Amino acid sequence: MSAQANSPSQSLDGKRVVITQANSFMGPPLVKAFNQVGADVIPDYRDLTHDKAADNLVCEVKNIDILIINLASQRIRAQATQITDQQFNTPFEEMVYPLFRLGRSVLPQMIERQSGKIIVLGSAAPLRPFADASAYATARGAQLSWVKAVGNEVAPANVQVNAIAQIFVENQEYFPLEYQATEEFKHRIAEVPAGRLGTGEEHAAVCLFLASSHCNFISGQVIPFNGGWTN
Amino acid sequence: MSAQANSPSQSLDGKRVVITQANSFMGPPLVKAFNQVGADVIPDYRDLTHDKAADNLVCEVKNIDILIINLASQRIRAQATQITDQQFNTPFEEMVYPLFRLGRSVLPQMIERQSGKIIVLGSAAPLRPFADASAYATARGAQLSWVKAVGNEVAPANVQVNAIAQIFVENQEYFPLEYQATEEFKHRIAEVPAGRLGTGEEHAAVCLFLASSHCNFISGQVIPFNGGWTN
Amino acid sequence: MSAQANSPSQSLDGKRVVITQANSFMGPPLVKAFNQVGADVIPDYRDLTHDKAADNLVCEVKNIDILIINLASQRIRAQATQITDQQFNTPFEEMVYPLFRLGRSVLPQMIERQSGKIIVLGSAAPLRPFADASAYATARGAQLSWVKAVGNEVAPANVQVNAIAQIFVENQEYFPLEYQATEEFKHRIAEVPAGRLGTGEEHAAVCLFLASSHCNFISGQVIPFNGGWTN
Amino acid sequence: MSAQANSPSQSLDGKRVVITQANSFMGPPLVKAFNQVGADVIPDYRDLTHDKAADNLVCEVKNIDILIINLASQRIRAQATQITDQQFNTPFEEMVYPLFRLGRSVLPQMIERQSGKIIVLGSAAPLRPFADASAYATARGAQLSWVKAVGNEVAPANVQVNAIAQIFVENQEYFPLEYQATEEFKHRIAEVPAGRLGTGEEHAAVCLFLASSHCNFISGQVIPFNGGWTN
Predict the structure, then answer these.
(1) Is residue B71 part of a domain?
(2) How many CB pairs under 8 A join A and B?
């Protein structure tokens, strides 16, 4: 039926979707969700901290319709007075420099085709402070600023770059089951209006929406996904 | 297939969706889009400025799963020094007080069912100023503040209240074809990174996303839909 | 000495400063602080909800260099589902419509002189939700939107309109001593990074800064004053 | 007179104020302004990109009441698709890593004394995009995120960390006279509501305000200083 053909998710049928670090952070539920809607999912597993990794990825995969930049970094707990040089460098090495390089590598083909999307799995950490997370929040804030600037820059070429400002979403890196059993977690989750973690399926729905060809009028934006924790 | 059953739009099948002022502003494309995904669309046409109109609507329709608050008001052009009492009152009478009343009338049943969504078609006008629009921007800003407060308040009951901060979207009220032919319009659209108006279909895709049962982890949020004009 | 002559506060010497509702909310410490720096303070006590009150004020006072719009409204505690028409109307009648009218009355003389300032004592309530305050937050949000729009509109005439987004500041209306003794207050103040209420003197320092002729490059802005509660 | 003694600027008398990179960016007018109000100004000229430079500065100067972090980096013009590794690294090396290190070095003494201020001269670039500035905006956005996180972290110790989100301010680095003569500049300044560059004196007034002991209730905040260009 035409109704089906027009549904946003259907528009992803056959689209080449690269998901970075596909076995960590939000990778597994995203691979599943994009496969379910018929996308041609290319999970990537390489370490993106190497300075040629982004170029290599794009060179190998060639045509990329949608690039999901799924980068996580251990949230080091350190006060601003205690943090080491390495502790504040690492989130940039793992989450910010790879972002620059992935954008630089993949955007030319998207601009040339006048079509393409980058979805950055960012964080709500820069939007509302929490304890001992300044290095992490700073790198995550850099990501959101990059998305705003670059999303603005490439929108005239019909390429969309957006971020999800997420927190309190189920994933092994930040919310393993053992952490969910702690008093600290219970105290934190009580501050989330939704009163629970978001699920991988719910998160994937945001990505499917942003990836859809029905979503070409949104670029350079930060979509909150955090149970109402920020606003 | 299970993939189909899981797609976000499918989750709207049979859902009772009320769209206010269904023949104006974003009403027509929304009625079409929600019908296409199988929702039970109840278009409403009443004047919502009357103080019993919201109660009457909810009393007549009874069960409402999703309420789309589609309210527009003529964007009066007046400098802050020239505006009349009526000119600044009118946007509140037409867009803000109906919002309070619609929320008050429909939220109790949603809270009781621990399920339901309100989507407010707001504006990006309060996010970036433009000339001679202070009254309009003020009322639209009030709408966004209401959404943030109430979306936070009802999220624990699994009810989601969100807004779309839209501008530069095709509709007869703000962008009639004659206006699109003016130099003023051409000057304004040149400031939109996407370089064009958003379509009714693209706008409907945002509403379908927010209306989906896969979107229960977002509440009290303002989703930008403006071709990158704000960020 | 020239150093003294150049100090920001000195620039207020002899300036005609009107403070509305001067015996309530932030009025008393502001009257004192502006008197101390040599301003010609005109405290005003009239009820500004009457539709001619703003015109009357400006007509009587004539030349106004700086208008401090000090408007408060009882923070009615009501859930969005319980609020009465009067309860959501009142904050607009008391805080939003007077703002429109005061701006309309006083801006023409400022624009003509190419000099003048309006300082709106707004609230951080629209920036971070708290329980059962949706009507109050909505009206306060409308104020901030008005400031952004009008501050932008009049900046080319060298007139500055700015707001202070304050909360947790000592005043009889919102934080009377009896309330400060409650458990609720203790719970709320524990969420303020500064761990205490701001004082009237500290608040006045923000107003003196915004009122200074050294502060002509800031317009349409919202200055946070809340002990770090928002950011 | 007591009025004099109470004025915010007077509170800086004898305070030890370090201004980094004092001969560039906003350094010269700041040195002058803080000297005029009687502060004990310690202009610093060292290159802060070296990993021991911040520690050395604090070790040499010892007691620092107020640290003004005045860091600039050439705004490299490069599209996101063209930028080199060095071009995106440099703004971080020059503006972000020194920020981490300066904060780490100076905050312990401030926390111990339960008194002290850091003022970061940031940028409005992350708040509103402009062409070919993604690397610069990303590093500047990282600065603002650091300020929000750390300002929140140290506020309980009565230490305040704030930023100024400035743009269109007179300085040799970004707005040399030759650039002010270009058509590009004239086009850009036409988008600033104030219609002009801010002056060094006006900028210094913001810093004097944030540095004052009357400004202890503001921490983790970003103060806009840009002629109304953002809001």
Answers:
(1) yes
(2) 137
Indicate yes or no: CB of B80 within 8 angstroms of CB of C150: yes
pLDDT over threshold 80, residue A27: yes
Is the Cα torsion angle C16, C17, C23, C29 positive or negative in sign?
A: negative
Q: For residues B220 and D36, what is the distance between their CA atoms, to the nearest angstrom?
A: 48
CA distance D96 to chain B (A): 22
Q: What is the mean pLDDT of residues A5-21?
A: 81
Strands in chain D per DSSP E = 16-19, 40-43, 66-69, 116-123, 159-166, 222-225
Q: Which of B98, B87, B1 is nearest to B58 (CA)?
A: B98
Predicted confidence (pLDDT) per residue in D179-228, tens digit: 999 999 999 999 999 999 999 999 999 999 999 999 999 999 999 999 99
Looking at the predicted structure, is the pLDDT value of residue A214 above 60? yes
**Chains in touch with D (≥3 Cβ pairs < 8 A):** A, B, C
Average pLDDT over residues C47-59: 97
What average pLDDT does the segment C9-25 reach?
92
- C19, part of any domain: yes
- Max Cα distance, chain B (Å): 61
CATH code where residue A167 lies: 3.40.50.720
Beta carbons of A64 and A116 less than 8 angstroms apart:
yes
Q: Do A107 and D80 touch (CB under 8 A)?
A: yes
ipTM: 0.96
C-side interface with A, Cβ within 8 Å?
Answer: 128-129, 231
Listed in sequence order, the DSSP H helices in D173-221 are 177-180, 183-189, 200-211
Residue C19: domain span: 2-225
The rounded average pLDDT for each run of 10 residues, N- to C-terminus, in chain B (231 residues) is: 48 96 97 97 97 98 98 90 96 97 98 98 96 95 98 98 98 94 96 98 98 97 97 83
Q: Is residue D230 part of a domain?
A: no
Radius of gyration of chain D (CA): 17
- What is the amino acid identity at position A180? Q
Q: Is residue D216 part of a domain?
A: yes
- The number of folded domains in chain B is 1
Residue D4 has pLDDT above 70, yes or no: no
Q: Are A87 and A65 in contact (CB under 8 A)?
A: no
Residue B81 neighbours by CB distance under 10 Å: 17
Helix, coil or strand: residue D4: helix
Place of tokens 């009810």: B159
pLDDT band at C75 (very low <50, low <70, confident <90, very high): confident
